[in-house]
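Sorry to interrupt, but I need a hand with the structure work. Leave the record below and I will have a look:
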Amino acid sequence: MRVVKQFSKDDIQVTIFQWNGKIILKLEQQFLEITYKWSELDVSGVEEVESLFENDVFLQKNSLRFEEMRKELGMIGY
């Protein structure tokens, strides 16, 4: 697995990988992780995945997902 790019946006750590014919986008916040995977045939390249961060909507929606995940984990004592 090859790390293509790493950066932080707000309080989310973003890592883009290329591996085995796939482009993988991993978002991490504290102990939580969200992962997206695309076949390299389905996107024009890593730049297309990076373009998701040009508009804050993608990041805001994932921030809400992290919030929901924390709430769900709270139900089991975390």
Q: What stands out?
A: The chain has one domain: 2-74. The two ends are 31 Å apart (CA to CA). The chain is about 30% helix and 40% strand. The mean pLDDT is 92.
